[in-house]
Amino acid sequence: MTAERIDLPQGTLDLLILRTLALGPQHGWAISERVQQMSSDALRIQQGSLYPALHRLERRGLIKASWGTSENNRRAKYYKLSKNGREQLEVGKDAWEKLTAAVAQVLGTA
User: Fold this and answer.
1) Any idea where the domains of the chain sit in the sequence?
2) DSSP string, the chain
3) 44-79: per-residue pLDDT in tens?
4) What are phi and psi of 82, to 5 degrees?
């Protein structure tokens, strides 16, 4: 049974990438696969969104990239969380929890 797909609110993709990389270094395709798996197939990250987000996070110093060899013996860029990225993940998670609690409260009053 496939879950209903959900469009990501703006800014959520960065948080999902940081959370995924908190599990360990991964290449782009593995990041998108992990998000899909962790969301029970509800979230799918398109390549056209993923790689610009990875580059943006790298420019901001939240992740670091290095070249390596993938499971299928291909050259791949691996990303890992930086110290700043780990801190940003905690800030982002806190903000997300406050936002979702506030939205749930408003929706619950209808």
Assistant:
1) 12-108
2) -PPPP-PPPTTHHHHHHHHHHTT--EEHHHHHHHHHHHTTTS----HHHHHHHHHHHHHTTSEEEEEEE-TTS-EEEEEEE-HHHHHHHHHHHHHHHHHHHHHHHHHHT-
3) 898 899 999 999 999 999 999 999 998 889 999 999
4) -90, 175
Residue 79 has, within 13 A of its CA and on its CB side, a CA count of 26
Angle at 46 between CA 42 and CA 47, to 5 degrees: 150
CA–chain centroid gap for 102, Å, is: 22
Yes or no: say if 76 and 27 are a contact pair by the CB < 8 Å rule: yes
- Give me the pLDDT at residue 2, please: 54
Confirm or reject CATH 3.40.190.80 for domain 12-108, answering yes or no.
no
| Contact status, residue 20 vs residue 29, Cβ threshold 8 Å | no
